[in-house]
Design brief:
Elements lengths: L1 H27 L15 H10 L6 H24 L14 E2 L2 E2 L10 H36 L4 H15 L2 H15 L16 H38 L2 H8 L4 H30 L2 H6 L5 H10 L3 H29 L7
Antiparallel strand pairs: 1-2
Length: about 350
């Protein structure tokens, strides 16, 4: 298992480099000019100097190489110094665009380091999108298991109906609908997510929960609808296998047969869906974050796309690609833990 994990990590390096190169070249073809938002009163020579300061006057391959150095060398050193702020192993000066005379990845829109903006937005995304994913998984797995065990029962039919509703109704409809019902008419929850709110006591914690409920409900509905169907289908496929009849013939209790033997084998395909859905958490929920005004990663990506902020879009896209490759590896490793028949020799 360890050898397989190391081999996959080594192979992930050229994969990520190829992905980053393709993304960078595609963004170079994108229309628009970062100097378009500069006031018309700025002289052309000043605009040209600004373009050169952003590295836009250099060939694309040179720009790509500088971006690689910034992402894989400069930013990791900044991260290490940020985590060890008391010692500052590399001598990082906070709130600066330079790191020991090394230029960091700078947003064209805000003229500030991209990674600092991302680190500011991640907690908001994890509060909402991450919590909704956890809630969705915890609800979907029991529903899928019981629906398969009681196939065609009232519970199974109701679960199928709710699943179809969750698949059919998009977030841009359920979000405003919940706002109208629970915020406007009933006044139970705030309609706008306050990203500046800090949890310091019990009262502030209750307010944080109240403003999280509606966006979490919208996103958890979709997660539950998807995972419960996968779980149900996988359970049904295993409930009719020979080893289940053998286990029952040996006198094992129904709870052990279902929750130990059948569930373990049924989780193998579901693990893939769950693991590959984790990167979407860090990608944020673009529609839901905009509906509830959550300043998360999804909203940041949309803003960067409209502003033609290529360094921000490039960095966020590469982070998503890295997370997908990483959680693909995690899913493959979990295969071996769930099914002893799978070997990685």
């Amino acid at each position: 298992m360890l050898t397989y994990a190391v081999r996959r990590l080594v192979l992930a390096i050229p994969t990520l480099l190829f992905i980053s190169f393709v993304i960078f070249m595609l963004l170079q073809l994108a229309p628009g000019d970062p100097m378009a938002q500069v006031p018309l009163t700025v002289p052309p020579e000043v605009k040209q100097m600004m373009r050169e300061a952003l590295g836009l006057g250099e060939p694309p391959l040179v720009q790509y190489w500088k971006w690689l150095v910034q992402v894989f060398w400069t930013e990791p050193k900044v991260l290490v110094d940020w985590m060890t702020s008391e010692t500052a192993l590399f001598g990082w000066l906070p709130d600066t665009q330079l790191y020991q005379d090394e230029l960091r990845v700078i947003s064209w829109q805000t003229r500030s380091p991209v990674m600092e903006i991302v680190l500011q937005r991640i907690p908001q995304t994890l509060w909402v999108v991450g919590m909704s994913y956890i809630v969705g998984v915890l609800i979907a797995l029991p529903i899928g298991i019981y629906s398969a065990y009681r196939q065609y029962s009232v519970f199974d039919q109701a679960g199928t109906f709710i699943t179809m509703v969750g698949f059919s109704i998009p977030p841009f409809f359920t979000g405003p609908l919940l706002i109208v019902i629970f915020s406007v008419q009933m006044g139970w929850f705030p309609s706008i997510y306050d990203t500046t709110h800090e949890v310091t006591d019990w009262a502030s914690f209750k307010y944080q929960l109240s403003q999280m409920i509606m966006p979490v409900m919208v996103l958890a509905l979709q997660t539950t609808a998807q995972l419960s169907r996968y779980m149900r289908a996988s359970m049904l496929d295993n409930l009719n296998q020979d080893y289940v009849r053998t286990a029952r013939a040996k006198g094992l209790s129904e709870a052990i047969v279902v929750m130990v033997h059948v569930l373990r084998n049924s989780m193998i395909p579901v693990v893939t869906v769950i693991a590959l859905g984790v990167p979407a958490i860090f990608g944020g929920a673009i529609i839901t974050e905009n509906v509830f005004k959550v300043n998360g990663i999804g909203q940041l990506l949309i803003t960067a796309l409209f502003a033609n902020d290529l360094p921000m879009v490039m960095t966020l896209t590469f982070i998503f690609a890295f997370l997908i490759v990483l959680f693909n590896l995690i899913a493959d490793i979990l295969y071996g833990l769930l099914d002893p028949r799978i070997r990685y020799d």
